[in-house]
Amino acid sequence: MFVFTVNFPIFSFSTIIPRNVFCFIDSFTGKNDSKLDPRFKMILWSIIAGTRGGVNRAKILNLLVNMPLNANKIATILNLDHKTVIHHVNILTKNELIIKEEKNYAASYKLTQIMKDNQIVLTEIMEKIGTK
Amino acid sequence: MIDFMIAAVIAALANIVLLVITVATYVQNMRLIRSYYTLGLVLVATLLMIQNVVIVIFWATLYMHNSDLMKSADMVAHYLFAINIVQTAGLSILLWITRR
Fold first, then answer.
1. What is the DSSP letter of A33?
2. What is the pTM (predicted TM-score) of this model?
């Protein structure tokens, strides 16, 4: 008996949207650091600059660069409400920028691998935010 | 029967309200982070708002004061309504993401 097999074309994200479509070329120097993933840069920018409370998210990420901290400590250091920090941390976890170290309550959070690889983007954004 | 022109204008007004909230959020961010990205977000949202303001102005002046134009505009009003209601849906999603 005949069986039709249909070969669906397999699209991956990178074939539909090529790497360089969303690249941010440095507007002053005109050069583009090709080691960075431009798609990740887009995600980080939109989550920090395109949402309410994005600056606090950037500050949380910047804290976690140095050491893993739990939500309570983040709230103390940044002088934010505990609920606010929990909300931000949940959003960041959902977007796979940070991850819980263990499963238990009050576990500390650390950066994921992709975030660690693209830390320079965060540094750039933090420079733009400055000390304001 | 639904008056599609009124419905379209109501959708346009809803779009304006959604965009005002979006722009307010973007401007708050732009005051803290000055970059091309934040400036671009504010610009895009403002231009979309102008588009909807123009629709409301068209309805309030040209459409109301010219009966010939009113007849011909009513013939295509359901298209305008479709455009605006889809935009309202899209902007609601954008606002939800922005204010989350």
1. -
2. 0.76
